[in-house]
Design a protein that fits this description.
alpha+beta; two-stranded antiparallel sheet
Length: 131
């Protein structure tokens, strides 16, 4: 199947069977969340798992004919861990750089690699059930 055929098939399913499409999108969102949590480091005993527990998924939303959900981390220092940050002393002098872990970026990349195969299987199952 080409990308255009996938897009058309998915749009048809969304239009005709929105509950099935929402469930699959929610499943993909949960997979992304699990991957990101697994890659997220735990920092110190007092903050243990705080960064991991701060991932959230919105409800499935629709804009026009497109279904989507939002994924975010509510921890105020998440962006520092994801992208990296300067290390600055009390005197304001930079003395290093802590590279980012890129746990969400890596998780999205992995999901993008797996998604075409997973979506093809899902579409095949949906079409079999509906026939």
């Amino acid at each position: 199947m080409t990308i255009e055929e996938y897009q058309k098939a998915i749009k048809d399913v969304i239009r005709k069977y929105p509950d099935l499409a929402e469930a699959e999108l929610r499943k993909l969102g949960n997979t992304l969340k699990k991957k990101a949590v697994a890659k997220t480091p735990s920092s110190g005993e007092e903050h243990k798992h705080k960064l991991k527990r701060s991932y959230h998924l919105s409800r499935v939303q629709q804009a026009g004919g497109t279904l989507y959900l939002e994924f975010w981390n509510s921890s105020p220092h998440f962006h520092l861990i994801e992208r990296g940050h300067r290390i600055v002393g009390k005197n304001g002098v930079q003395y290093g750089f802590q590279p980012g872990v890129h746990m969400v970026e890596q998780s999205v990349g992995e999901l993008n690699e797996e998604m075409p195969e997973d979506l093809e299987k899902w579409l095949d199952e949906v079409f079999k059930e509906l026939k």
